[in-house]
Amino acid sequence: MKHKSPKLNESLLDIMVSVNRLLRQKMVISSTITHLTLIQLEALLLIDRSEKIQMMEIAEYFHITKPTATILLNKLVSLGYVERLGVKADRRVVGLALTKLGNTILKDAKEIRSQKINKILSVLSVEDKEHMLRIMRTVLANIQK
């Protein structure tokens, strides 16, 4: 059953915005593990999930310009977390991959993130989490249309 109540929809939006803001604050990875920004950590996650990813794909994913994506990746390369992989058939194409150090940092960050989200969601039962996941997937699919 779909609710058409504008007040209910506004309340839901307010809650989703508040949850998003607070999650971003609470999910910051401690500087004792890494000094990376949230977008830098998200870039490491994106590179890790992708078999072959190029600079333009990073720019599109984060909705930033290609020069801004290049600055982001240059920083990760200079820190030793990411390496550029040239494609011999086309020198204009540059792939990206995590280095051993990048994998280690990402593994540590994922563990910390997992601990934090487990603590945040510990107030919910497994059934509540499954219900929430189903709802969020439905909302996400609708937004992506």
Describe this structure in words.
The chain has 145 residues and is mainly alpha-helical. It has a domain at 32-119: Arc Repressor Mutant, subunit A. It has helices at residues 6-26, 38-49, 55-62, 66-78, 100-120, 126-144; strands at residues 53-54, 82-87, 90-98. It has a three-stranded antiparallel β-sheet with strand order 1-3-2.
How large a portion of the residues is in β-strands, by DSSP E? Answer: 5-15%
CATH superfamily of the domain at 32-119: Winged helix-like DNA-binding domain superfamily/Winged helix DNA-binding domain
What is the helix/strand order?
HHEHHEEHH
Largest sheet: 3 strands, antiparallel
Overall morphology: globular
The CATH architecture of the domain at 32-119 would be Orthogonal Bundle
- Calculate Rg over CA atoms: 19 Å
Percent helix, as a range, is 55-70%
Q: Which ranges are low-confidence, i.e. pLDDT below 50, for 5 or more consecutive residues?
A: none
**Tally of individual helices:** 6
Number of extended strands: 3
Strand order of the largest sheet: 1-3-2
CATH class term of the domain at 32-119? Mainly Alpha
Q: What class, by secondary structure content?
A: mainly alpha
Average pLDDT rating: 86
Tell me the CATH topology of the domain at 32-119: Arc Repressor Mutant, subunit A
Termini gap: 20 Å
